[in-house]
């Protein structure tokens, strides 16, 4: 009996040792897995951080020219004489050199001259429409005197033609309005050179294209002047006859 008891005890001890060894091995395996998972998580985190930093650096490099260009623009709400790094209306109109500034000045002058040219075109178009209307009305009155009232009321043009003419006049007007609004926006930058050449362009445009507003070739002896002179002569003559003493 003692032999069997001793064998039983030895078998129990070996089983206990085997269980302890298995527990230690399983714990070591779990620790190794945890270490591997931690290492992989750490590697993933570092890769994500590196990607984020690289992306941020690329965004900073990509956005740095725009921020520097907008930051370098010189604008002021007071009178100034900025040339280099002056900006007008948009960030793309950024003066970076003297030649660019000179080109912008010439562009402003030509823009104001073009506005006066468009005004001249509108006046000439209005005169042409009036001449055509009078010509058509005179032809209609000559051919059919009984229908002169109808033709004169319709101005010699059809409804569609009048709408087309007025559309052209509206296009010329909106061009003048747009140029005037752009000139106002440019003047709001209070740049002395810009304001000065806005005035110069307007002066040159009016000097070249606005001479039609005064007709110097009109003769002095117009019917209105003759009428005024005739009335004044009659008044003077009546005054002299009334002032003379009567012969008794």
UniProtKB/TrEMBL annotation:
Which Gene Ontology terms describe the biological processes this protein takes part in? Answer: copper ion import across plasma membrane
> What GO MF annotations does this protein's record show?
copper ion transmembrane transporter activity
Q: What is its main location?
A: membrane
The residue stretches assigned to a coiled coil in this entry are none
Q: Which Pfam families match?
A: Ctr
**Which topology term describes how it sits in the membrane?**
Multi-pass membrane protein
Q: Where in the cell is it found?
A: Membrane
Q: Which residues cross the membrane?
A: 100-118, 167-187, 193-211
Q: Which UniProt keywords apply?
A: Copper, Copper transport, Ion transport, Membrane, Transmembrane, Transmembrane helix, Transport
GO CC annotation terms, alphabetical: plasma membrane
Family membership: Belongs to the copper transporter (Ctr) (TC 1.A.56) family. SLC31A subfamily.
Name used for this protein in its record: Copper transport protein
Organism of derivation: Schizosaccharomyces octosporus (strain yFS286) (Fission yeast)
């Amino acid at each position: 009996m003692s032999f069997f008891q001793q064998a039983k005890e030895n078998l129990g001890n070996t089983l206990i040792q085997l269980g302890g060894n298995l527990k230690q091995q399983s714990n070591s395996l779990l620790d190794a897995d945890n270490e591997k998972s931690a290492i992989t998580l750490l590697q993933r985190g570092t890769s994500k951080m590196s990607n984020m930093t690289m992306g941020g650096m690329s965004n900073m490099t990509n956005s740095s020219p725009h921020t520097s260009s907008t930051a370098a623009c010189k604008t002021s709400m007071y009178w100034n004489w900025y040339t280099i790094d002056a900006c007008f209306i948009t960030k793309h109109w950024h003066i970076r050199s003297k030649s660019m500034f000179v080109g912008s000045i010439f562009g402003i002058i030509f823009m104001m001259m073009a506005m006066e040219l468009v005004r001249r075109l509108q006046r000439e178009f209005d005169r042409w429409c009036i001449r055509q209307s009078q010509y058509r009305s005179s032809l209609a009155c000559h051919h059919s005197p009984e229908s002169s009232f109808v033709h004169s009321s319709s101005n010699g043009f059809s409804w569609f033609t009048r709408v087309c003419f007025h559309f052209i006049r509206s296009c010329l007007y909106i061009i003048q309005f747009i140029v005037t609004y752009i000139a106002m926006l440019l003047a709001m930058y209070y740049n002395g050179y810009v304001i000065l050449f806005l005035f110069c362009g307007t002066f040159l445009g009016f000097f070249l294209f606005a001479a039609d507003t005064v007709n110097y070739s009109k003769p002095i002896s117009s019917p209105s002047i003759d009428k005024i002179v005739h009335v004044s002569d009659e008044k003077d003559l009546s005054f002299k006859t009334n002032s003379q003493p009567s012969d008794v």
